[in-house]
User: What shape does this take?
Amino acid sequence: MVSETGDGDATEPAEFIARRLGRAEQRIAELQLALEVASLYDPRTGLKSRNALLDMIEYQLRWQKRIRHPLGVLTIRLPASADGAHVAATVAASLRDTDVAGTWGDWTIGLLLPLLTPSTGREVWQRVRRHLPPGPCEAAVAFPTGETTAEELLGAAEFPTESAQAIETIVLS
Assistant: This one.
């Protein structure tokens, strides 16, 4: 039986609808959070997603301008036969706490390496390479030397012969 208030409104159905609406809103918020977290990581590799990696690089580029510390981005192009999840785990294990690994393309891993200089780029690549499975892979590192975006920096490391003037690149393999 529905109780009625003095003005003729049914309160129980309104309360029922309010409760249902509250639960639905809570579920939507939970799903939005799950989607946001899922968008930060590549499901195949467990590394940061392309967009999350770009955001981290943009942040580091702004920070680098302020504090004038070096910054490098290393890309590793893997053969299509590589086990992306295994390679990602071994690469991530070889990084410092300040470094960030992310998926840049289907078979490309991008590494954000704060405090990396051109003179230490090859040394870092050799350390990372020791942790990769045997077989061919290509790598290059890019360093901003002027105004540049995260996408330009990663693109220069992926395709060093096409890099912009504001980016110094070194082919490592």
Observations:
- The first strand starts at residue 71 and ends at 77.
